[in-house]
Amino acid sequence: RAPIGGKVAYQRYHPGQYLVAFHPKASELNERNTVVLEHAHGQQILVRQIAGLLARRIRYFLQLEQAVKAGDELGFIKFGSRCDVFLPLNSPINVHLDQRVTGGETVLAYLSDKPQQ
């Protein structure tokens, strides 16, 4: 699910290997799809869908410059796997380590009103 509303500023599919999703190199070597969403205030969030050992197939729905609303589907990874979310450094985090989160329900963080220095 899209963590924020805005537009797709970047989208790229990367073919790759199928290491187990928790492997440290999985985010660099595995099949993955990278999307950068830009909020109306200019803040950007990168979301990376990463296929794991069993998943082996990512479906992505968004195209460059497409408008999205928070909660819209980005795509899915068959059989599940891993999704990394990269936030601006000044974003107050709302979850803790090892917390189970649910897409479209759990608030991961808040975007700060202050510009990043």
Question: How does this model look, in words?
Answer:
The chain has 117 residues and is mostly beta strands. The protein contains one helix and seven strands. Strand 2 (32-38) and strand 3 form a beta hairpin. The two termini are 28 Å apart.
Tell me the number of helical segments per DSSP (H or I, 4 or more residues long): 1
Task: Give the beta-strand count.
Answer: 7
Reading the helices and strands in chain order gives EHEEEEEE
Largest sheet: 5 strands, antiparallel
With strands numbered from the N-terminus, the spatial order across the biggest sheet is 5-1-2-3-7
Radius of gyration: 14 Å
Helix-strand makeup class: mainly beta
Task: Present the secondary structure layout.
Layout: E1 6-14, H1 26-29, E2 32-38, E3 44-50, E4 58-60, E5 67-68, E6 75-77, E7 82-86
Antiparallel strand pairs: 1-2, 1-5, 2-3, 3-7, 4-6
Question: In a few lines, what is going on in this structure?
Answer:
By secondary structure, the protein is mainly beta.
